[in-house]
Amino acid sequence: MHIHLALRRHVVPLLLAVGLVLTASATAHPATPRPVPLRVATYNIHAGAGEDEVFDLDRQVRALRSLDADVIGLQEVDVHWGERSQWRDLARELAHRLGMHVAFAPIYSLDPEPAAAGPTPPRREFGVAVLSRHPVLRVRNHEITRLSTQGENPLPEPGPGFLQATVAVRGIPLDVYATHLDYRPDPTVRAAQVADMLRVMDRPCPFRCPAHLLLGDFNARPDAPELTPPWATLRDADPGAPTFPASAPDRRIDYVATSAGIALRRAWTAPTGIASDHLPVVADLHLTRR
């Protein structure tokens, strides 16, 4: 009994001291959060048609599946748009067939054709989309400067189609922006669009802003003057190869761009053949908890 009490008098204080040392050590040297891997891609799907102008969604599903990407930004997405894509909803159909969540932002949303069948035919829409293996928490369709292709003598004016999809990647919120910039040789509209996008992405947040990605067809080469501003705050995940036209690419106009809080491991163009008139850009990233 006396031996037991003596041991308690010495051992208990010793255990308390060891616990305090371990606690202090853990506080002084907190465990570094493990980075979260994420594969992303951007792909202009040419409204479901290949470079051969043949509509073949099965071919594009195979191409998209081969990327094995967690998040994919899509451009030139038809939703009940017309005969060229068989009046199908490409955004939802691709998401369903790939087992992914989807967010869609129309650039154009037009009344149905007068001869459309059914009592309430859907609107004819064309725009950009984000496919995600991770849950989509919020979707916003922002306006940027547009020069419409749907009317005569258009003037630059604000129009929708700059998609922001907030996804939850293993508990980390991530803002994914998908865009398709003006295709005309005159860079004036593209320059205005770049400025508009940066204003949207730089908006203050009520709390700490999530890291963000910008995925899209910029319709400009990396050294184009109108693309200089984004690289002040974003990193170009350069695949080291051209992306257009798909069969004999000679220029890079498709981009994955990352903000702070995202580490780039590698980027490449995927060999998807002529499933579209563009090649996809794919990037392996690491997200860090902030």
TrEMBL record:
Q: What InterPro entries does its record include?
A: Endo/exonu/phosph_ase_sf, Endo/exonuclease/phosphatase, GPI-anchor_lipid_remodeler
Q: Name one Pfam family in it.
A: Exo_endo_phos
Residues in Endonuclease/exonuclease/phosphatase domain copies: 41-278
* Record keywords, A-Z: Hydrolase, Signal
Molecular functions (GO terms): hydrolase activity
Signal sequence range? 1-30
Keyword Hydrolase annotated:
yes
Q: Know the name of this protein?
A: Metal-dependent hydrolase
Per the UniProt record, the source organism is: Streptomyces albidoflavus
For this protein's source organism, the top of the classification is: Bacteria, Bacillati, Actinomycetota, Actinomycetes, Kitasatosporales
